[in-house]
Design brief:
Elements: H1 2-14, H2 18-44, H3 47-71, H4 76-89, H5 92-97
Amino acid sequence: MIVSGFVGGTLLSIEGLGGLGAAMGVIFLVIGIIDLLLGVGCFLAWSWVWIVGIIFSVISILIGLVSLVTSGLGALVGIIIAAIILWYLFQPQVKAYFGQA
């Protein structure tokens, strides 16, 4: 995501869409930094990562359901992956790892 922010922003700027490129670049950069923090937090067992993981999984399922209605069955894979992640986060050993048991 971080690389996408730089590359996508640059490509949109080349096409004459500088403002849009900058906005999308910043959005992708922020999402990339959040993803990086979540990844590090998972390895270091930061307790807040468990909560954020649940929130992001629920949001992903909701977005997937909207996409399922609007764009078809392609969104079903995203819904299944988010549901598996949500199920995994509620396993007793995972909750204990993050200090949520």
